């Protein structure tokens, strides 16, 4: 059975800086292989605490270069490759992230492969299969992601973005939808989703399950669990607020 482990659920500078929620990444486990999504600060530590074998993380996906999504990338590449003595692993990242140098130059040759994320593109790093959505509306090049699981389920990740017309439809095929919900209420010129945006999305598509994560301070103050519970009741959908260490079976 495949599973997803949310090592951390922090989604804004203050929450990350104070570690009010862990800012570690998300692990996808299929068969005996692991994919690491968005290795933010503390990812290596949380993987060690959970005794996840670093050498079995053959795939890393970085949605964009902001530190809460990429700060532990270099140490992860070094750890996975045992300091470069074992050439292994595939890294997926945007062209913008690569140009900004989020991966130190000496680590490039440690990896088997580096692939650039582009819009509407299908990728395979077996046993993992996923595709990107359109370019999202954020302050860095960033795409939504749809992962295809051997159980026949599709899990979508709406990563950091402002709401825009057509966003929901990009994830219409997702059975499980993970939404990065930084804010409780929208704030002008802040390119992150809020609860009112989540409602707009879920009025257009109705996944089997919705998971809210990547919380900023305004979400923590109002209690994400209560917010998710009310949303679930109002919309008639299974909606949960994520917590650090939460696992879901696919």
Automatic annotation (TrEMBL):
Keywords: Hydrolase. It comes from Thermodesulfobacterium geofontis. InterPro entries: Metallo-B-lactamas, RibonucZ/Hydroxyglut_hydro. Residues 35-215 form the Metallo-beta-lactamase domain. It comes from the Bacteria. This is MBL fold hydrolase. GO terms for molecular function: 3'-tRNA processing endoribonuclease activity. It holds the Pfam family Lactamase_B_2. Signal peptide: none annotated.
